[in-house]
Amino acid sequence: VQLVESGGGLVQPGGSLRLSCAASGFTFSRYGMYWYRQAPGKEREWVAFISSSGSSTNYADSVKGRFAISRDNAKNTVALQMNSLKPEDTAVYYCKFATYWGQGTQVIVSP
Question: For the chain, does the N or the C end have fewer beta carbons within 10 angstroms?
Answer without folding.
Answer: C
